[in-house]
Every structure is written in structure tokens, then in C-alpha cells.
Design brief:
- Helices cover 40% and strands 15% of the residues.
- By secondary structure, it is an alpha/beta fold.
- It has a seven-stranded mixed beta sheet with strand order 7-6-8-9-11-10-15, with helices on both faces. A five-stranded parallel beta sheet has the order 1-2-3-5-4, with helices on both faces.
- α15 packs parallel to α21 and α17 packs parallel to α19.
- The protein is globular, with a radius of gyration of 27 Å.
Length: 629
């Protein structure tokens, strides 16, 4: 049970309870839901601004439609906290994004009210259309299908593919455009400007409202056929969405829940594809979040009254995040080479390309939530003689796989992929872990695939990639590194395809790639005190693989253990196994990595322990092997 201050929310566990309220009570309920989200997220960090902006919209949708019979798809999923609270997860919300808690995103296996999982953007229209088409084919013409798209997701190509197909389909569906002008950062591109023109054009909106009211009020007098002809000629092409075949409504105030209920009641009676354009404020109800929308997308812990972000615990050593090292290093490189440009799909601040944008604003391109376009755009820049650094989170680079192969690698173009949030990323969970990049990049010809052990090596890899001029992938994790003094070290160009010995040992060799190698070093230090001498090797380049180093390792050790912060299938362990087989070595190999399943949410430390990638698990594996030997 919640605090007594939540008078209305305490009465609601499911949408059926919500429907017992009078419409006049809904504004007070929205205030309570918004306050509950602020209260919980202030102490248990999550995606704040987006969900604060959709409270009224969420309440109205659940009040008007009959969920879960009707289908509601959220795009992107971090708008959906109010939805979770109203659909049986009110009390569980305090464990949102925690280990063994509920997911921070809609998840079909979690609730029948989550019609479709949504952690990546721009998928809702296509998914809702598929569901609507299935209902039509099954003879169910009454079921409603609603896609809520916002937070910049309409900039994604798949959203337009869905719109294009929906406009000619026999689908009973409604697209709700949650227009807050933001993604994680400020929305960019022509679509953002177009939506702004629609929302600010008083002449257009007065004309639309008068025209629709005329047709609705004079249908009997002028006849259905004439009405349809007039609407087609006057209104059909009046905006982009109607050109796609949607009946357009709006823009409306997305924070007026009473009016939203009335509008949705009217719209749900209409058949075919409809689009409701709602204007909302990201961070609504918390002044700091409204004023600093990008910062409060996911602010960490904050004071629930003032909104002031609480300072992180003071560290003895001021370590910087890997993305900050990337942002500062690319500025170094860009100062020396005016052909260097930065590209990111709506992850400007998250990737730290905002650092470069401040110094070189004309050479940084935020292309919106368009990963496919980002990669091919980078390829075009490379053809034009520029050296593009394409900064994309690992989980989002998956969306541009064909472009990596066809547009970059096949043509041997020098695009440098800076792959942030690689490996286990923590509380965002299964939709956002970057576990597959090593495997899906290793099989692509012409690709160089690398991962740094620490911040110095990240800086060295970035400098090296500039000199190599080939398709070059550098993957690094979310979070802070291990070398607070990285900037004081001189830059060293690396030999592509060469690993190194970090610590010599006997009998057992640990072979790692990326920052997980620091766990291997720590484990080896502890094991040495027990009299177990373990060799530790940083492979650095998964492709090309340092076969000479592997030959040397095979000559000196009786047992190999590979360690990678990624899937076991197709990554470093697979590469070493292929090498051993090709060279007819019979040396036993133990692969440590993530098993063949989707890892859920939790802290990085909790998930490393679950996946057997923490220091203790490495020590345990080595002890077991040493005992057997």
C-alpha cells in the first residue's frame, strides 16, 4: 500500500479500477501518479523526463480503451512508467530496473498489458499495424490498436515505413504522436521543424477545425459521397500524415486529460488509420526537469522536491567515463586534422560528441534516431574525403548491420565505429546490453575489431584508427575507467592485430579482450598469493587476431581461459577455438562470457556475478583448473 497521500492512486491496481473514477477526478489522479514517479525515480534512478510527460496521455488511453483486449504499443518504452503503475505493477514500481525487479521497458512476459516489448525506437507503428492486420484477417473489426510514438522516434526510418504501409491497409489503428520536441537530446532534422510548423500555425489549425466541424455537422445535407470528395480535395493533402492516408487530429494539449478523454472517445469510433498529435512537455511537473530536459532524461538520484541532482559519492581518484575520454580525444584529433567529423544518431551527449560540437560545431552531425542513415551517411562522407567517427551505442549499432556490411566494409571505406555501452550495461536490461558486437562484427570481411583495456589504450586506438584508414571498430563499456591520469600518458600508435602479455605465468593462461581484462589481472594478483601463477594476455584486436601471440601462448601453457564481456557465441572464445582447431592443438579451452540467453536488468556488478564475469568467478574457474592439473 502506498502512502496515504495518494488518495486516488491507492484505489487503483488495474485499468478496471481507473474506469470507476469520474472524468473530473482524472486531473487529481494524474498529479498523484506524477508525484509517485518523481518520488520513486529520485531514489531509484531511471528514465524520468519522458514518463513525466506522458502521465495524462497514459491515463486517458487506459480510461477510454479496453486494455488488454485493445492493444497498446509504446515507442520508445521509457515513456511507459505511468502505464506500468496502472497495470498491476504499482507497488512493484519501487523495484523498477533493479535486479530481479520489473523491467524499465514494456515487456510481454511481464504483463498482458504490455502488448509488445519496446526498448529501441521507431518500432511501434509497424508492430501495431501487424497486430491490427492480424485482427482484420481473423474477422475482429472492433479491437483497437494504438501506437504511442515520441521522444524523437518519428525521425527513425522504420516509423516512416510503418506509416507508408498503414495508410493503405485495412487496419483499425491509432497512432498517437507524443510531440515533446526531444529525443534524449533536442530533436533534430526536417521532421522536427515540420512538427513545429504544424503546432505553431494558427491559420492552419483554425482551418482544419472549421473544416472537420463543417463536414461532421452537414453530412446529411451534403451527402456522404460529396463529403468524401470535399474532404479529399481540401484536407487530404493538408499535411504529411494525411498524405500517408491517415486521418489527422490535432495538435491537442497532451496535459489536458479531460479533453484527451473526449477526443479519444470520438476518435475510437472511426475506422481506418488515424493520427492524434499531442503536444507535451518532457519532464512535466518538475521544474528542473522541464528546464533541463536532456539532463533529466535519466538524471540519476535527485531531490524529489527541488529536483536538484544529488552529487555522486566522492572517489579517491577522479576517474573519467570512457565516453568522456572518447570525446576529449576526438577533439585532439580534430584539431590536427580538419577532415575528421563526428556522427551520432541522437546520442550527442550520451556519446560525448557534444564536447566536439562545442569546439567544432560544423563538423558534428546529430542525425536523429536513424542508425542506418548514420552509417551510410558516414560512408558517403568517407567517399568525399573525410574521416568519419560514427559514435553509436552497441545495442543500436545492431540496427544498421546491413549498412555496416554493404555500405562500409564491402567498399573498404575508412569509417571509424566508436561503439559505446559495449558489454553489460546494467539497469537498462536486455534491450540495451551490448553483448553481440564482437560476434556480429568479427564475421565481416575488411573490418578491424578492437577493444581497449583502459582509457590510455582507448586513446591510442583512436589515434591508430586515423592512421590506418580502414573500416575500424572500437568498442568500450559504459562507465568509468581505471586510469585517472590517462591524459598525461604519451600517445602510442598500436600495431593492428597485435596483443600483449600483461603478466607471465605457468600452466594456465587468461586471454581477454577489453576492460574485462582488468578483472583478469586482479584475479591473477589474488591467485599469486595462493601460489598459483597465471599468465594474463590482452588480445586487444579480435580481428585481425594475433595468431603469433596465440602460438606463443600454446607453447607455454597447458590450459587456456578466454574472458569477454559479450556473448560466448562467435566472440573471442570462438575465435581462439577456431585457431586451436585449425592448428591441431589439443590444449583444453574454457570460454568465459555470457551464455546464450538474454540478460535482464540489474547493476553491472550483479550481472557480472550472474554471468560469471566478476573477479571471484575468474578466480574460481582458475582454481578448478589448477586443481585438475
Amino acid at each position: 500500500m502506498l502512502s496515504d497521500k495518494y488518495i486516488l492512486l491507492n484505489k487503483i491496481q488495474y485499468p478496471a479500477d481507473l474506469k470507476r473514477l469520474e472524468v473530473s477526478q482524472l486531473p487529481d489522479l494524474c498529479k498523484e501518479i506524477r508525484q509517485y514517479i518523481i518520488e520513486v525515480v529520485s531514489n531509484n534512478p531511471g528514465h524520468l523526463g519522458s514518463s513525466l510527460g506522458t502521465v495524462e496521455l497514459t491515463v486517458a488511453l487506459h480510461y477510454v480503451f479496453s486494455l488488454p483486449k485493445d492493444k497498446l504499443v509504446w515507442d520508445v518504452g521509457h515513456q511507459a512508467y505511468a502505464h506500468k503503475i496502472l497495470t498491476g505493477r504499482r507497488d512493484a514500481f519501487v523495484n523498477n530496473r533493479k535486479y530481479h525487479g520489473i523491467s524499465g521497458f514494456p515487456k510481454m512476459s511481464e504483463s498482458e498489458y504490455d502488448s509488445f516489448g519496446a526498448g529501441h525506437a521507431s518500432i511501434s507503428i509497424s508492430a501495431a499495424l501487424g497486430m491490427a492486420t492480424a485482427a482484420y484477417l481473423s474477422g475482429d473489426t472492433q479491437r483497437q490498436h494504438i501506437a504511442v510514438i515520441g521522444d524523437g522516434a518519428l525521425t527513425g526510418g522504420e516509423a516512416f515505413e510503418g506509416l507508408n504501409n498503414s495508410g493503405i491497409a485495412n487496419a483499425n489503428m491509432l497512432v498517437v504522436l507524443n510531440d515533446n520536441g526531444m529525443a534524449i537530446d533536442q530533436s533534430v532534422g526536417a521532421m522536427s521543424r515540420y512538427l513545429l510548423r504544424i503546432t505553431t500555425s494558427q491559420t492552419y489549425n483554425r482551418f482544419k477545425n472549421k473544416a472537420w466541424n463543417f463536414f461532421r455537422g452537414n453530412l446529411r445535407r451534403i451527402g456522404q459521397n460529396i463529403s468524401n470528395i470535399l474532404k479529399s480535395s481540401i484536407l487530404k493533402q493538408s499535411n504529411l500524415f494525411e498524405s500517408f492516408g491517415f486521418r489527422y487530429f490535432g495538435p491537442v494539449d497532451g496535459h489536458d486529460v479531460v479533453h484527451l478523454v473526449k477526443v479519444l472517445e470520438d476518435i475510437k469510433r472511426l475506422k481506418g488509420p488515424k493520427l492524434l498529435h499531442c503536444i507535451t512537455t518532457k519532464g512535466k511537473g518538475l521544474s528542473m526537469a522541464e528546464s533541463h530536459q536532456a539532463v533529466y532524461h535519466a538524471p540519476g538520484k535527485f531531490d524529489p522536491v527541488s529536483g536538484v541532482i544529488l552529487p555522486a559519492p566522492v572517489e579517491r581518484e577522479q576517474r573519467e567515463k570512457y565516453q568522456t575520454v572518447f570525446g576529449k580525444t576526438i577533439c585532439e584529433l580534430a584539431a590536427e586534422n580538419d577532415k575528421i567529423v563526428g556522427i551520432t544518431p541522437a546520442m550527442l551527449s550520451g556519446s560525448s560528441l557534444d564536447i566536439m560540437q562545442e569546439k567544432f560545431p560544423d563538423r558534428v552531425f546529430d542525425v536523429g534516431i536513424t542508425e542506418q542513415h548514420a552509417v551510410t551517411f558516414s560512408a558517403g562522407l568517407a567517399v568525399g574525403g573525410y574521416l568519419p567517427f560514427c559514435a553509436i551505442y552497441s545495442t543500436f549499432l545492431q540496427r544498421a548491420y546491413d549498412q555496416i556490411i554493404h555500405d562500409v566494409a564491402l567498399q573498404k571505406l575508412p569509417v571509424i565505429f566508436c561503439i559505446d555501452r559495449a558489454g553489460l550495461v546494467g539497469e537498462d536490461g536486455a534491450t540495451h546490453h551490448g553483448l553481440f558486437d564482437l560476434a556480429y562484427l568479427r564475421c565481416i570481411p575488411n573490418m578491424i575489431v578492437s577493444s581497449p583495456l583502459n582509457e590510455c589504450e582507448l586513446r591510442n586506438l583512436l589515434h591508430t584508427a586515423v592512421q590506418v584508414r580502414k573500416p575500424f571498430a572500437i568498442r568500450y563499456p559504459r562507465g568509468k575507467g581505471v586510469q585517472p591520469d590517462w591524459a598525461s600518458h604519451p600517445v602510442q600508435l598500436l600495431e593492428v592485430g597485435k596483443g600483449r602479455c600483461l603478466r607471465e605465468g605457468a600452466e594456465i593462461a587468461l586471454i581477454s579482450i577489453g576492460p574485462i581484462g582488468n578483472h583478469a589481472l586482479e584475479a591473477a594478483t589474488v591467485l599469486e598469493r595462493e601460489g598459483i601463477q597465471v599468465g594474463v594476455y590482452d588480445i586487444c584486436f579480435l580481428k585481425p587476431l594475433d595468431e603469433a601471440l596465440l602460438e606463443e601462448i600454446c607453447q607455454h601453457y597447458q590450459y587456456l581461459i578466454t574472458i569477454e564481456n559479450g556473448t560466448k557465441v562467435g566472440g573471442l572464445g570462438s575465435a581462439v577455438a577456431e585457431f586451436l582447431t585449425a592448428r591441431h592443438y589439443s590444449i583444453p579451452l574454457h570460454i568465459m562470457g555470457v551464455d546464450d540467453y538474454f540478460v535482464e536488468q540489474g547493476s553491472v556488478a550483479e550481472l557480472e556475478a550472474e554471468c560469471g564475469l566478476d573477479v571471484e568467478s575468474i578466480q574460481k574457474a582458475v582454481r578448478a583448473v589448477h586443481k585438475a592439473l
